[in-house]
Write a structure and sequence with these properties.
This protein has about 110 residues and is mostly beta strands. The protein is built from no helices and eleven strands.
């Protein structure tokens, strides 16, 4: 059974940094695309960043230049380095792994204080 476990969230002041990690318990992680989503209170889950099996990356406009997504296939891991954090970055961050089907982690809370 596939399991994704996120970590690294927390409370940080505006302008600070956090690094999120997601470890996947699965086979052939390198064949899957990977994404980070954010869900703010009372809002829909939105795509923040993605990195596919070919290491092609994409970012939401709101995080371009501030966030960096990366992966380490040898460790079955996905990362999100978040810099210059803003209060609007607050939310639960979810790891997502997809191919023909997709899998989700349980989420990690990020709170940015103003």
């Amino acid at each position: 059974q596939v399991q994704l476990v996120e970590s690294g969230g927390g409370l940080v002041p505006a302008g600070g940094s956090l690094r999120l990690s997601c470890v996947a318990s699965m086979f052939n992680f390198d064949l899957y695309g990977t994404r980070w989503y954010r869900q703010a209170p009372g809002k829909q889950r939105v795509l923040v960043a993605s990195i596919d099996r070919n290491d092609t990356v994409a970012y939401a406009d709101s995080v371009k230049g501030r966030f960096v997504i990366s992966r380490d296939n040898a460790k079955n891991s996905l990362y999100l380095q978040m810099n210059s954090l803003k209060p609007e970055d607050t939310g639960v961050y979810y790891c997502n792994v997809y191919r023909a089907i997709e899998f989700w982690g349980q989420g990690t809370q990020v709170t940015v204080s103003s």
